[in-house]
Amino acid sequence: MEKALKKLFAVITEEAASNVAFSRKLEDAMGAFAETYQKDRKIEREIEGFNPLVALKALGAESFHKRVGGMSAPALKLLIQKHNLDPSGALQGRASKAKLVDAIVGAAEKRAARDAKLFEY
After folding, report:
1. Dist. CA 95–CA 79, nearest whole Å
2. pLDDT of residue 89
3. In whole angstroms, what is the distance from residue 81 CA to residue 69 CA?
4. Are 68 and 105 in contact (CB under 8 A)?
5. Comparing C-alpha atoms, which of 119, 1, 100 is closest to residue 52?
6. How many angstroms separate the most distant Cα atoms in the chain?
7. pTM score
8. How far apart are CA 105 and CA 62, in angstroms?
9. CA 57 to CA 52: how far, in whole Å?
10. HEC-encoded secondary structure of 23-86
11. Mean of the per-residue pLDDT values of the chain
12. d(C-alpha 63, C-alpha 114), whole Å
């Protein structure tokens, strides 16, 4: 695999050195990839280590709602996806930020209520 990659990059380097149009296209593609990657990483860092089910218990309902409401819409979507808070897929597409926040808060409260019942004897 290493040999194949070295040959591939050698061909790309050679072509970029001799073909200015190819070099520009390659540069544009790499720049676009870098921008997308940076945006994705920023969103991931925003929710890193945040578990809505644990945070509700730790922060309380009001503080939890404020914390979730302060997140960006892409971060909320990633949080929903990461923790499988919308298994039916009802929030796919263009859900408003308020609906995303309500879905996360509702799922966390539902889980907390279920957990509370689980340990009743």
Report:
1. 14
2. 79
3. 17
4. yes
5. 100
6. 76
7. 0.69
8. 10
9. 9
10. HHHHHHHHHHHHHHHHHHHHHHHHHCCCCHHHHHHHHCHHHHHHHHHCCCHHHHHHHHHHCCCC
11. 89
12. 21
CA distance 86 to 58: 22
| Amino acid letter, residue 103 | A
Name the pLDDT band for 3 (thresholds 50, 70, 90). very high
Residue type, 75: A
Q: Hey, what are 98's tokens?
A: 């308020």
Residue 12 and residue 26 in contact, taking contact as beta carbons nearer than 8 Å = yes
The token pair that represents 11 in the structure block: 């061909």
- Dist. CA 47–CA 71, nearest whole Å: 8
